[in-house]
Write a structure and sequence with these properties.
mainly alpha, elongated
Length: 181
């Protein structure tokens, strides 16, 4: 990578942003950073030295591109407003080597897991009515109950799949909350 940057075919001075629905930055998000900033932040002196020697700058010295909040772009696209920027070009075989599986898809679950997931869904049915603290407690309780390390060796594969299902449901719930906030 350093050779590419030295040859002028790549740049370390690209400013990245972490977005939330309200804009750039926020709780636990950095408003902007470059590779050099990341090396400094994570105390990787050897990487920082290489990047600095190759001509990398901190974000304060780089030109910041004007970008629209991607959450606003997505909301406009969902309303049918279209996007004036990038147009995706699809290829017929683009996903030929991929298999996509929805974690919550009951068709892929065996009978025992289906029964357990049904019980978990009953426990989660009033999730939306709970406070954020109670939602966190509920997910923590479910994760502790189904953590693979809490089960015997013969039950670990099932516990692992259920634990992953719970994690997926949790992420979906948090993302849904972020989009509706």
């Amino acid at each position: 990578i350093v050779d590419l940057a030295t040859a002028g075919k790549a740049s370390f001075n690209i400013v990245c942003h972490e977005w939330n629905p309200k804009g750039i930055g926020g709780a636990c998000l950095r408003p902007c950073y470059t590779a050099l900033d990341q090396a400094r932040l994570y105390h990787r002196k050897e990487i920082w030295d290489v990047l600095h020697k190759a001509g990398a700058f901190p974000h304060q010295r780089c030109k910041k591109p004007k970008r629209e909040n991607p959450f606003d772009v997505r909301a406009r696209q969902d309303r049918g407003g279209g996007d004036q920027g990038y147009t995706r070009q699809e290829h017929g075989d683009r996903y030929a080597d991929f298999t996509f599986q929805e974690w919550a898809d009951e068709a892929e679950m065996d009978a025992k897991m289906l029964e357990i997931v049904k019980g978990l869904k009953d426990e989660l049915k009033d999730f939306g009515k709970l406070s954020e603290a109670d939602q966190t407690k509920l997910f923590r309780k479910l994760c502790l109950r189904w953590h693979p390390d809490k089960h015997h060796e013969d039950e670990k594969p099932l516990a692992t799949r259920i634990f992953q299902w719970i994690q997926h449901v949790k992420v979906d719930a948090w993302e849904q909350k972020a989009w509706t906030a």
